[in-house]
Structure of Putative phosphoenolpyruvate synthase regulatory protein:
Amino acid sequence: MSLHPASTQPYIRTVYVVSDGTGITAETFAHSVLAQFEGLRFKHIRLPFIDSVDKAADVAARIDQTFEADGKRPIVFSTLVNSEINTRVRQANGMFLELFSTFVEPIEAELGFKSSHSIGRSHNVANTEQYQNRIEAINFSLAHDDGQYAKGIENADVILVGVSRCGKTPTSLYLAMQYGIKAANVPLIPDDFERDSLPSNILPYKSKLFGLTIQPERLSEVRHERRPDSRYASLEQCRYEVSEAEKLMRREGIRWLSTTTKSIEEISTTVLQKIGLEGRFY
Amino acid sequence: MSLHPASTQPYIRTVYVVSDGTGITAETFAHSVLAQFEGLRFKHIRLPFIDSVDKAADVAARIDQTFEADGKRPIVFSTLVNSEINTRVRQANGMFLELFSTFVEPIEAELGFKSSHSIGRSHNVANTEQYQNRIEAINFSLAHDDGQYAKGIENADVILVGVSRCGKTPTSLYLAMQYGIKAANVPLIPDDFERDSLPSNILPYKSKLFGLTIQPERLSEVRHERRPDSRYASLEQCRYEVSEAEKLMRREGIRWLSTTTKSIEEISTTVLQKIGLEGRFY
């Protein structure tokens, strides 16, 4: 079940991410840091839920085995906050980068407060209000995906509009999952262009609308993957729809951005900035 | 549009996250670090896409204004890799924590390679194969949510099963979005318990099944939010369904975990560990 076949290029070093929680934050961070070493391949191993000295001993043994096998000490990104557990792991032959303590200590000095050094605090805890908001937003975004289920759309924080396959659905789900934002999405379809009007059910919420657009050439590629050689995927149809959608959005004064070369994260960040929700969530 | 009303508790310090990319990784990381200061409230401001010296000057001005207003220097988590931009921002009166360079320099020394110091490399770039896999997985998980659209389910990497509202949908979407895993989900419903058998369409894929379960009391709460005072939400019904689902999973030899007190991230991490997909993605 190798989903993303490993590159044939040999890896330069094994990288462990060791955490008392899920290690997801640390893993994402490690990827960001190592992405600065362009062209080098690393072998990543995440070891989550390391919350006892026994588990720490297993981790240390594993790091030592890798050192033997690779002939080079592994790089270990660690977010262990318990000092006994951390000390045990550090007995292994690795290069240790302590993500939390590196920054917690100077912040303690700056604030004049001691940190709580408590385990597994890095993630939203289930059943908190903030966590419930995220789950609620995911359910909302799913229920209001692709123009379905118009009831309740007035509760949306943002309503994404644009032609079919321009990136509305993944963006809506990301906004919900990452930020607890209730993001509906409604397609602009040829019917709307013929009537020369936005879908009637979203007309009352114009201030919540945000448009996504895309280069017709890229749209045609994306649509061909889904429905090869269809009229729907033809470059001519894509050009028509994108041009009409942009005309409509321009006339209605809807802000929009092009998704052509942007990742979900970049689209979402830009949407948040433009609709002024950025930074309201803490 | 204040979605999560601010606490009445005053914040102890303003925290900026300054990035040449989206800043999402840095923001998540900053939250993790500051979560170690239990009980203290911070005001978070993310400033993404700071990719020119002009923008850096604006950021510096903003940090200085905050210093004036708060009477305390802001904490600035920064992932600026361009040294000219970074130097300009650092002219402001803040406490600077440089997330990347703190670790990149020791890794350079360890590897004997220089990093590329290139901007905006921390995220998956749109249109790479890995990014396309994520988008494809999101579409797959949506199409195979809640037992719908059985066609193609043989391409799933994992099929989550469990009673209605036990957490299958958010977990499937998270696995797809974060890891590019094609996660289908299929509910176990009273019909299945009466027939005393798994749904027939997933029987051929038993090795891909992973069960989620939940305490009946918690399930009843969750269901009451969706359908207040329904039979569906009654504690009696929840007890019946959970007990039958666990019996079925036990008999069929399906691995499972309880979601009751777990976040999506914790559930997903555990699923990945148990099905052995952990660490296969790099």
